[in-house]
Amino acid sequence: MKQFSALAVLLGLFVVSLYILFVPVPLPPPEQEYREIPLAQLNGWNDDEHDKAFQSFQISCTRLLRYPDTREYNGFGLAADWKPACEAASLLENANAIDARAFFESHFTALSFMKEEEGLFTGYYAPLYKGSKTRSEQYSAPLYAIPNDLQALNLGDFDQRLKGRSIIGEVENGKFVPYKDRKEIAQGALNDQNLELVWLEKEEDSFFLQIQGSGFIELESGEIMHMGYAQRNGRPYRAIGQFLIESGDVAREDMSLQAILDWMMKNPEKSDELMWKNPSYVFFQERKTDKPVGSLGVGLTPGRSLAVDRSHIPLGMPLWLETYQETATDNETMEQVPHLKRLVIAQDTGGAIKGKVRGDVYWGIGDEAELKAGPMKDRGMYYLLVPKKVAADILSGTNG
């Protein structure tokens, strides 16, 4: 009898083992990544000039409406899910702030990350520099077109798992190697290749125009050239302001574009070495437009276009932006001062714009825009405006 009992126990354990091995155990539901925020509850929503963001959204739609319906939208549905809002926007002419607000409330749901995170928000602008199509003693700093030996390889052509990623370099002695860095180019690596599009007065002008990604050049004849981003050398971007902070030349709280320019003016013999610490280099093309064009391929709107990390935020998405600036009070404690509360449209990217919550606000062209963009280093967050059907699918866990 004892032997029978032992056999029964062993048989039972065997059956349980088989059950564990072959019967699927239900997985816990995935953690919810987003939650809905009623638009009316967004801080400052009712006070914004929604018509300005609406105009920027309409511009984005000229691009979005050309996408195939099946194009994936970075985890936020398909292009077909976004087209009804774009089609409705194209029919709404001369919308005022009230009309525009009603449009966004009718077509979009605001989503917040479940774990709300803050990030860094900076500003950029399109510089306006003096230049010449001929090199001279006054104009000696070139802007280059894409070199013939630069190659950008689409890694998705080799492995579908790498779709959307690329690597930039050149072939040297039969090997594919990283492309020339800033220092090599500055020291003449691209000389005698007829790549110069225009000449500026100073290397610093060329450097900061590359940082901004596009700009305008006033020629001696009075003609204005619009120079736009064409390609980069593939080297990592390094923020040179960080080196000035680490060296103690500029205090972290005082760091800005203007602070860097001031340091360069006072230390001209060290300016090249500082710029070379950023190995990234940008090549240009002339554009026949009167406004900068972002990575979405449409013109940017001052104060309403935002550069984002497109691996997290799809281009064309409206975002409710809230930022604040930290300022030191008399007793040296930090005070948070609200800065921006507005609707913006993701229309651009940038080499330094990396992360789930990270943005760069476009402020316009010339000196006034520089004064807004240069000092901006806000902390803040954004809320994602998603077509209502897509938002419902995301919140129910049925999206994608």
Question: Can you walk me through this structure?
Answer:
It is a single chain. The chain has 400 residues and is of the alpha+beta class. 30% of the residues lie in helices and 29% in strands. The protein contains eleven helices and 17 strands. The strands form three sheets. It has a six-stranded mixed barrel, surrounded by four helices. Strands 5-9-4-10-11-12 form a six-stranded mixed β-sheet, covered by helices on one side. Strands 6-7-8 form a three-stranded antiparallel β-sheet, with no helix packed on it. A hairpin with a 4-residue loop joins strand 10 and strand 11. The longest helix has 21 residues. The chain is globular and about 60 Å long.
Which keywords apply here?
single chain, 400 residues, alpha+beta, 6-stranded mixed β-barrel, 6-stranded mixed β-sheet, 17 strands
What is the alpha-carbon Rg in Å?
26 Å
Order of helices and strands: HEHHHEEEEEEEHEHEEHHHEEEEEHEH
Low-confidence stretches: none
Number of strands: 17
Order of adjacent strands in the largest pleated sheet: 3-16-13-15-14-17
Instruction: Give the helix level as a range of percent.
Output: 25-40%
Mean pLDDT: 90
Structural class: alpha+beta
Discrete helix count: 11
> Largest beta sheet, briefly?
6 strands, mixed, barrel
Our measurement of the CA-to-CA distance between the termini, rounded to an integer number of angstroms, reads: 58 Å
Strand-residue fraction? Answer: 25-35%
Looking at the structure, what is the overall shape? globular
